[in-house]
Each structure stands twice: as structure tokens, then as C-alpha cells.
Amino acid sequence: MLKYIDSHAHLDFDKFNKDRDEVIKRAKTNGIINIINVGTSLASSHRALNLSQKYEMIYAVVGIHPHQAKNFSKRSIKVLKDLAKADKVIGIGEIGLDFYYDNSPREQQKEVFRQQLRLAKEINLPVVIHSREADQQTIKILKEETMYNHNILLHSFTGSKEMAGEALNMGFYFGVGGIVTFNSAQYLKNIIQNVPLSKILLETDSPYLAPAPHRGKRNEPLYVIEVAKFIASLKNSSLVKIAEMTTKNTKRFFKID
Ligand SMILES: [Zn+2]
């Protein structure tokens, strides 16, 4: 059986309260060897850690999403730092900028992003970035915080061709999920076609963004296989190669086993 890793899921969300166990089991029996559960707030980061302690296959990433930047306090960094000490916490995220929803004031989003980048640097953990409608600002901050030699993953990449170019120059990685399978995302297909396979990690962003043919339904880690199939056809490659390479990339990026 081919092996896959879902590098970005939110199994701690309420949408999985009724069948979390089955969802995880379903993924496991179909070749998903690891799921990386990403925090979006302090509470969600705690839940991510709990999941990683309960399930061997799950790892946790802890951080405060730009939507939650408005709730950030001095204490938040201390709590994150403590959480990050746990064995199965392998990264800081998802952090970044969201100028599409603007759920938190932009200046506050920037400041919270910077502080968490500094924390990641201090404790030497990879970073999972959320960036929406904020290409230039995100790159600018990553440059100003001198994140060149740091493992940076642009999760659910939907940036411009220019941003993709900048990201490749800086050695960043690309998280590819459901969006690339949507008919409406032709521009993204073109970009991903030109990103070297060595820089691509598979993800679902469950419960959001289910790939075709499950679009519109609740997403789950099992569907990472649909993303892999799509990339195989996009890159004229075999599913075996996509599964092997992306699994290897994810392990290298997060420094797991
Ligand atoms: Zn996410």
C-alpha cells in the first residue's frame, strides 16, 4: 500500500466530534501514516497536543491564526513556548496574515505573526504559514525577520506567480490541497506544475476545502489521496512517485523519524 502524510488538518474542530475515531482509523487503514494537526488558537493548540498524545500517528503544530490575533497577549507566547516543549509538537503554525477576512486588525496580525516567527527561530521549529490576499506583506515580513534558512511551509498555497517565485528563491515549501483540484483554479494548476516536486507537501486542511470529487463535503485526511492523484496527473508522474516524494518531503521538513 502507498504511504501518505496529511501535513495539515484540524481534527480538533467540532465537525469531528461525532466520529473522530473513525475518521482517523479510516485514514490509517488506507495508507495515511501520519496526520499533522495544526492549531489555530491557544485552545486549539492544546487540543492538537492532546490528539498527538492520544494517537500515535498524529503530530501537533501550535500557534495563533491571524483570525485570532486580536486575542493575543504577552502571555500567549509563553504558553506557546511551553506547549512547544512537548515531544510531539513539531512546528509553529498556523501563523500569518489574512487580509481577505480581516477578522483581526492588520497591524495586530503583523505583530502577532512577527512574534511567533521569532519564537520559532528561538526554539528552532519549522513554521506553517497562512497567507490570504497578503502575498507581499507576508514575504516582506519573512524577509525582515530573516527566515531564509528556516523551514517555512506556505500552507494551502494560493498566492500569485510572483509570490511562488519569491518563495522558491527563499527555499520555502508549498502545501498543496483541495483547491488545486477545483476547475476554477487554473492559475494555481499552472503554478504548481512549475514547483519542483521536492518542495511539495500534501495536505487536506480538513474539515475545509475537500478536493474533487468530494468538493463541498466535509474534508478528512483520507482525501489527501485524491490530492496526490491530481498532482500525479498534473505533473505527468506516477502516484507511487508522488506518494513517496511528498512523504519524504514532509518528514524532512518537520524532522520526523
Ligand atoms: Zn488550516
What is the secondary structure topology, with strand pairs?
Layout: E1 4-9, H1 20-29, E2 32-38, H2 42-54, E3 58-62, H3 74-84, E4 89-98, H4 106-122, E5 127-132, H5 135-144, E6 152-154, H6 161-169, E7 173-176, H7 186-193, E8 200-202, H8 224-234, H9 239-254
Parallel strand pairs: 1-2, 2-3, 3-4, 4-5, 5-6, 6-7, 7-8
Helix pairs in contact: 2-3, 8-9
The protein binds zinc ion.
Summarize the structure in words.
The chain is α/β, with parallel strands linked by helices. It has one domain (4-254): Metal-dependent hydrolases (TIM Barrel), CATH 3.20.20.140. 41% of the residues lie in helices and 17% in strands. The chain contains 9 helices and 8 strands. The protein has helices at residues 20-29, 42-54, 74-84, 106-122, 135-144, 161-169, 186-193, 224-234, 239-254; strands spanning 4-9, 32-38, 58-62, 89-98, 127-132, 152-154, 173-176, 200-202. Strands 1-2-3-4-5-6-7-8 form an 8-stranded parallel sheet. The model has no long low-confidence stretch (mean pLDDT 96). Zinc ion binds next to loops.
The rounded Rg comes to 17 Å
Instruction: List the total number of helices.
Output: 9
Strand content: 15-25%
CATH architecture, by name, is Alpha-Beta Barrel
Tell me the quaternary state: single chain
List keywords for this structure.
single chain; 257 residues; alpha/beta; TIM Barrel; eight-stranded parallel sheet; 9 helices; 41% helix; 17% strand; binds zinc ion
Compact summary:
The protein has 257 residues and is an alpha/beta fold. The chain has helices at residues 20-29, 42-54, 74-84, 106-122, 135-144, 161-169, 186-193, 224-234, 239-254, and strands at 4-9, 32-38, 58-62, 89-98, 127-132, 152-154, 173-176, 200-202.
